[in-house]
Automatic annotation (TrEMBL):
Transmembrane segments: 52-69, 103-120, 140-166, 178-199, 205-223, 235-255
Organism of this sequence: Phocaeicola coprocola
Domain of life, per lineage: Bacteria
Keyword vocabulary terms for this entry: Membrane, Transmembrane, Transmembrane helix
KW Transmembrane (keyword) present: yes
Protein name, per record: DUF4271 domain-containing protein
Entry-linked InterPro entries: DUF4271
Keyword Transmembrane helix attributed: yes
Length: 269
């Protein structure tokens, strides 16, 4: 009788061990993550205001603005005011030649940085493949560098063409006018970029504002170039060629260059 009992207890113990092993295996399987189980989350869209690199650039631009307005407010206001005036005679003792041009240079750098930032924002809204495959810092650096190259190219082209066709005084006056305009645009471009980045300004609205600023700058250059170089009626044809060659064509080539660089980045990466 005792032998039969021992066999029955042993059998029950083995069954309990088997049941415990099954429970352990089921618990282990339930704990392991299944990548295909559950609902896939929706990734958040990229936003400029959440990018620490973009925020740092905006802060740097603000500091440079503060520096320019604190130390050179009078000079900057004089140069912006001179954009809407015309002098029949040029003086070597003008404020533009005796004052330091570091404030205009600082504001020009700000304009280039903000221009590159807007191009970066526009590309991020229209080309999702590029924004996902290329690092944000690299793209922003390329666009800012392209803006600086565009301004430098325009300066070199002005110097060369005006050196051939016009006298030195008018050439210097035009170069000063051009950089005054580029630096003055920064005062309008900075609040627009703040609206775009931190107030979710729509892509269409922002495009209209940027096009308006660009047209305003070109119209002002159109007026200044007529008054500076082509005051007579017979020079109007020359003026059309001059304006198209040095204003319209470089702008088209600038955008084509950005498109070409974007295509290269997509193919390489």
């Amino acid at each position: 009788m005792s032998t039969v009992c021992r066999i029955g207890v042993k059998y029950i113990a083995e069954k309990m061990d088997e049941q415990q092993q099954r429970l352990d295996q089921a618990l282990t399987a339930s704990v392991q993550a299944n990548p295909k189980a559950g609902m896939q989350g929706q990734p958040l869209p990229y936003q400029l205001r959440s990018d620490a690199f973009v925020t740092g650039i905006i802060l740097i631009c603000f500091v440079l603005f503060s520096y320019s307005l604190k130390n050179g407010k009078k000079y900057v206001l004089q140069r912006i005011k001179a954009l809407f005036q015309y002098k029949e005679r040029f003086s070597l003792f003008d404020d533009a030649t005796t004052s330091s041009n570091r404030y205009v240079f600082t504001l020009t750098i700000i304009s280039c940085v903000l221009s590159g930032l807007y191009i970066y924002e526009y590309i991020s809204e229209t080309d999702f493949m590029l924004i996902r495959s290329v690092s944000n810092g690299l793209m922003l650096g390329i666009y800012i560098g392209m803006s600086l190259f565009y301004i430098s190219f325009k300066w070199a082209a002005y110097q060369f063409v005006n050196w051939i066709f016009f006298d030195k005084e008018r050439n210097n006056y035009w170069i000063q006018t051009y950089f005054d305009l580029v630096s003055g645009i920064s005062f309008l471009l900075f609040p627009v970029m703040l609206l775009i980045i931190y107030f979710n300004l729509g892509i269409q609205t922002s495009k209209v504002l940027i096009v308006f600023l660009l047209l305003f700058a070109k119209i002002l250059l159109f007026y200044k170039s007529i008054r500076n170089f082509f005051k007579h009626v017979y020079g109007f044809l020359h003026f059309i060629l001059y304006f198209c060659a040095l204003e319209i064509i470089p702008l088209i080539l600038f955008w084509k260059g950005i498109t070409y660089i974007n295509n290269i980045l997509i193919l390489k990466i």
